[in-house]
Design goal:
234 residues, 6 helices, globular
């Protein structure tokens, strides 16, 4: 990987530099649009005492949930945690620290971090436990709380396509938290389905400019369904 070529050939190279006690921002929503291979690599590395910023923590045997098995995560900053029994067990036993954040606020905290904005005011959470210990200010007769932005040592992201310069295109709902996450890491690593040559992506279809991206690796994805509900016949 050199110059304008962001492509790496191995997961070892993709996640080089990740060490204990770092903060990692992970794209994805449930099991949709998650960087499956990068998460598996973190499990393989056995890196511990990590803080993860992600909408949720996957399920017990897939997504970020696999990192709970070896107690690699010390803290989760998330919005939703309802599909993971081991997450619940570790939280209730005091083994895992959890900071629950409203989903829109979490997305904006990541986006603000990537934009260099240190904090912002939002009405979401005022008058609830979310607001405890936070500055409150009134604008036009309405109370707002001050939320600090989030940045990470690493951001791990899933995209559909990338060129060699790291310009990214996301597909449908797999876009979710990925564009915000891509901007907020000191080192941003992206897992993609397809790599194209520079110039093949139209400027108007690029969602994340390559300036935010440090490494890109091509992978295949399981694309597991989180929960399948079927109607009964008749």
């Amino acid at each position: 990987m050199s110059g304008f070529n962001k492509i790496v050939s191995s997961y070892d190279e993709a996640m080089a530099g990740l060490t204990d006690n770092m903060t990692v921002i992970a794209g994805g929503f449930g099991l949709c649009g998650i960087p499956e291979g990068l998460i598996a690599q973190i499990k393989k590395m056995q890196t511990k005492q990590l803080t993860f910023v992600s909408n949720n923590c996957g399920v017990d045997d897939f997504g970020l949930g696999i990192l709970l098995q070896g107690k690699q995560i010390k803290k989760m900053i998330s919005s939703y945690v309802g599909e993971n029994a081991e997450f619940e067990r570790q939280y209730l036993s005091g083994e895992l620290e959890v900071e629950l954040t409203p989903q829109g606020t979490l997305a904006e905290k990541i986006r603000a971090g990537g934009a260099g904005i240190p904090a912002f005011y939002t009405a979401t959470g005022y008058g609830t436990p979310v607001a405890e210990g936070k500055e409150v200010k009134e604008f036009n007769g309405r109370k707002y709380i001050l939320e600090e932005a989030i940045t990470g040592d690493f951001a791990i992201v899933r995209a559909w396509k990338s060129d060699r310069m790291g310009n990214l295109v996301y597909r449908d709902t797999a876009m979710n938290f990925n564009p915000e996450a891509a901007t907020a890491g000191k080192i941003t690593v992206v897992e993609v389905e397809e790599i194209v040559e520079n110039g093949e992506l139209k400027p108007t279809e690029i969602h994340t400019p390559g300036i935010y991206v440090n490494r890109v690796i091509q992978a295949t994805f399981e694309k597991r369904i989180e929960r399948l509900t079927l109607a009964k016949e008749g």
